[in-house]
Amino acid sequence: MSRRPAAPASDAAVAAGSLPVVDDRAVRVTVAVVGGGGVDPPVVVAPATASQGTSGDPLVDGAPVAAVLVHADDRHAVLVHDGDHGANRTHVLFGPVRRDGPDGVQLREVVVHGWLVEVEIQSARRAALRDRARRGANVAGHGGPVEIRAIIPGRVVAVSVAAGDSVAAGQQVLVVEAMKMQNELRAPREGTVVRIGVAIGDTIDVGDLLVIIN
Amino acid sequence: MTPPFRRVLVANRGEIALRIIRACHDMGMEAVAVYSDADARARHVSEADASIRLGPSPAAESYLRGDLLVRAALDSGAQAVHPGYGFLSERATFAAAVRDAGLVFVGPSPEVIAAIGDKLAARRLARQVGVPHVPGTLEPAGTTTASEVDGVIEAAAIVGYPLLVKAAAGGGGRGMRRVAGPGELVAALAAGSREAEAAFGDGAVYLEREIRPARHVEVQLLGDAFGRVVALGERDCSIQRRHQKLIEEAPAPGLSTDERRLLHGMAVRLGAAAGLSNAATCEFLRDRDGAFWFLEVNARLQVEHPVTELVTGVDLVAEQFRLAAGMSLSERVREAAEHAAQPGAHAIEVRISAEDPARDFAPAPGTITAWSMPSGPGVRVDTAAGAGDRVPPDYDPLIAKLIVYAEDRPAAIARLRRALGEVEIGGIQTTVPFHRAMMEEPAYVEATGLATTWVDDGWDGSRHRARAVRLASIAAGLAAIDEAGLGRAQSGAQAASGSPVPADHGWRATGRADALDRWPR
């Protein structure tokens, strides 16, 4: 599973001090990126602050949002939130917390409207500190190389780029045959191909390293 | 009534194998399942009366091994073999092998399967009986000599551009190429032929005019051994992507009684001319002017057969068994055929597959961690999947069919919205969010945008997913805060105590009423 650092916008905001001091109780929710998909911006959720008076709305990215989570059990909940015509009820299916490591990052699956979303949850303060440390270590603006790993087993039927090639975001990199179909793997963003880990004809398994793009 | 057979070998897997086993048990027949290593713990195996291992997981070493299937049928004492759909169901050699072994093949005869499976022969037959086929060529395109290629280029000019190069021996869009102009023709013929050869063992291709936009409308046929062929109504399967169907319904929206009669009549004429017995489906394209053009005949039971079953009240698999045993079309079938042009109900099926609608429906195999399917009035679920199942990459990603029926289309759509809201699947991404979105899509709900190109042109999965991601992130954040005891915890117990929202919560009084009622006072 390839992971990306937080979207630049919130880092810049924190660094510039334009966001309020990160609440100790705030959590940052980042969508774990699997196999080079699109970028979902992380979301910072904080409980209502005393200074809001009787408002009591949680803060999402610093702004109050009328939402409350009503649990039925540890897997089923309903998110009641403002919609265009009164309140919306969105059923939420939670998977178990899968990782609760010493680094304080939790991993769990959340299903909303049939969309399966893998999220990483950690203290927002700790996440911001970690970002700052990582940014210091990186020279490239992109934030480090992206590893594209296989998410389905199959067979490589075409390799469209070579080490050293420049690629544009969305450019086809590999074609993998699996489940009776040909699946095109595309570069998640622009960059340079560092290495191709497979060749035509190779059988690949889930997790195999396919391409590294810098 | 005596069952048509004592024991049946079900030569398939997954939901359709379970469907066939259920029909067997409904009729008092024993069912023998077959399985590959990947399916050793599958539900179709546990529901059968006996099971036989075929081999390792790849289909080519198991479900496609006709010799092993025939051997399994003989060893198990079965009298009949039901092939289901896909796999060997349209392989004439398999049907013949079953027959040669002294068993009954539950489907059309090998000769009819061969005749109908050749799409060019079917088109020529359509022409013979006066059924208009999609304009194009009726012979395989010659690509070996220069004069042959010249001939194809000439024929293509008559067909007109843009046109489609299609495989004579197959379907599902494989071997198919769209050709925008004469410059692309030769390359498309070569590529299409290569793909067809790889997929079907036959590289013959032909040309068809592209009808765009088109609706996909098909007719369910049943025929008996006495030459009688009837139509049990039509289905609309226009919502598909890259020629894989996603949503099907019966009847096809917006057709008049006369149009239905015309369509059914054409299908019956073709089926009768082909000598059809047992079940088959005659596919047509309906162009924007409302004309029907014959596409092809599938000489087998289709994935979407339940919508016809629910509208007509006919159990198609049970009928297949009766017809295979040499009985004539049942009374129920003949009555249903008589009313087929004026159906009194509407049914819609959505295919739930392990595919990601935000990544162009890329396969999403994995392990199902949570599984709960809807039920209640007018809801039917055909599935063999359950919690804990691993969706293997070796087979088709279809894991469940959710079908609803109601008195008319708007009621069916409302019911499908309700049923989709009840679906809970954890651990894998499925096509459920696509179906939920389609039930809100005006082009579908008002049946104005039905066309086989709609999904490929108009579906933006990332946009739909982005909204869900935001809600999921907020929910996950609130859950983490609750669990850490940092905010106001909301539990079911508190909700049960009367108000889901504590009195001192920031929502205004009307907001609180909104949380309780769907319609504010």
What is this structure, in a nutshell?
The complex is a heterodimer of chains A (214) and B (521). Chain A is 11% helix and 43% strand. Chain A is mostly beta strands.
Q: Nearest-angstrom radius of gyration of chain A?
A: 20 Å
**Fraction in beta strands of chain B:** 15-25%
Helical content of chain A stands at: 10-25%
**Inertia-based shape of chain A:** elongated
Q: Let me know the largest β-sheet of chain B.
A: 8 strands, antiparallel
Average residue pLDDT of chain A: 76
- Enumerate how many helices of chain A there are, as a single number: 2
Average pLDDT of chain B, to the nearest integer?
A: 91
Label the overall shape of chain B.
Answer: globular
> Segments of chain A where pLDDT lies below 50 for 5+ residues?
1-21
Largest interface: A-B, 66 and 67 residues
Q: Which regions of chain B have little confidence, pLDDT < 50, spanning 5+ residues?
A: 488-521
How would you classify the quaternary structure?
heterodimer
Provide the fold topology.
The complex is a heterodimer of chains A (214) and B (521).
Chain A: H1 8-16, E1 27-31, E2 43-46, E3 59-60, E4 63-64, E5 67-71, E6 76-83, E7 86-94, E8 99-100, E9 106-112, E10 115-123, H2 124-137, E11 146-149, E12 154-159, E13 166-167, E14 172-178, E15 181-186, E16 191-196, E17 203-204, E18 209-213
Antiparallel strand pairs in A: 1-2, 1-10, 2-3, 3-4, 5-6, 6-7, 7-9, 8-9, 9-10, 11-18, 12-14, 12-17, 13-16, 14-15, 16-18
Chain B: E1 7-10, H1 14-26, E2 30-36, H2 43-47, E3 50-55, H3 66-76, E4 80-82, H4 92-100, E5 104-105, H5 110-117, H6 119-128, H7 146-159, E6 163-167, E7 177-179, H8 185-200, E8 205-209, E9 214-223, E10 229-241, E11 244-250, H9 257-273, E12 278-287, E13 292-298, H10 305-312, H11 316-324, H12 331-338, E14 346-353, E15 355-356, E16 362-363, E17 366-367, E18 370-372, E19 379-383, E20 390-391, E21 398-406, H13 409-422, E22 424-426, H14 432-438, H15 442-445, H16 454-458, H17 461-483, H18 492-496, H19 509-516
Parallel strand pairs in B: 1-2, 1-4, 2-3, 4-5
Antiparallel strand pairs in B: 6-7, 6-8, 9-10, 9-12, 10-11, 11-14, 12-13, 14-21, 15-16, 17-20, 18-22, 19-21
Helix pairs in contact in B: 4-5
